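@channel sequence for tomorrow's demo:
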Amino acid sequence: MAKKNTKLHNPFVLAEYAGPEYFCDRTEETEELIANLQNGRNTTLISPRRIGKTGLIRNAFYQIRKMEKDAVCIYIDIFSTKNQHDFVQVLGTAIAQYVLTFEDQALKRLLQFFGSWRPVFSADPVTGMPTVSVSIETTRTEMTLMSIFDYLKQSPHNIYIAIDEFQQITYFPETGTEALLRSYMQFAPNVHFVFSGSKQHLMAQIFNSPDRPFYQSTNGMGLYPLHEEIYYDFARRFFEARKGSLSKNVFHTIYTRFDGITANIQQILNRLYEQDKTIDDERQVSEAIQHIIYRNSMQYESLVLFLTDNQFSLLKAIAKAGRVKSPQGREFIRTYELPSASSVKTALTVLIDKDLVCHDAEGYIVYDRFFALWLKQLV
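structure tokens (generated this afternoon):
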């Protein structure tokens, strides 16, 4: 997070939340999320990746800290976790890192509470700020998780925890992870949760299935692309602030070409803001897009190396088609010279699981729009 009153050289932020000045709209969503949390309603936040879930959570936490000076707000992303032990270690590290920001004595008390934690101290390679991670014995995973909740319950403060990509717990090899978490969470009245996820079908199974521990335990929220007019007004003000301009028609081209996906649009605006004060020609957009694709080409080449011939052929076909209603349909298979429908089905399952292809109400599409453009340029 940027420091208070920090002015960014480029206002179109690509990574961390940089404060409300650089955060576009989401006023109603922010107010709803804050109201849920402050009134004891845990929240399930579901949307495709790159729409802005993380930014919304960070913005809500920023506002909560302004309202509650002693509020504890912790965000973790568990996308890379593979099991319960990974999850507990990520959560434990986030708590230790939060405590470290206050004072050494507070961290010492925390580590004394968790006698089995083995802390590792280092400095952030970018900011130089001190960081801490904790190592947890595999055999003590469940005991440590229970201890974490015991520690949180003893806090005199309200604690807000956001767990991003929460559907990852469905891939854990251990049985009963959901029940374990639910049993601890329901007896921690001062701890409030946001469960955020991008895979709608898995999140729906966790929170909407009557036979699952989290059934009807949260308020649901969906997140959709920013309204085009609001996003344009937000963007043009930064260009006008330095005596430049952003054409409404050009912005419309960007917005529609990338389906309103915040992350993709921010990348283009970031590049345009760096290059020119006045943006009034769609050729400027094309040049920015080509630059982004070129800079990412090595990453894209690495991605496709891990795909089989059938998976790669299907991925290219979906990219070239733009959006596919029925990938197993005879016409699509014939047009792009794909193998049998059963082979396409098998390949499609893998591409979806790898988050390379997503499915919405209008069909199947390559998740990363820049990656799709790169694929379309291939022979």
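heads up for whoever presents: The radius of gyration is 23 Å.
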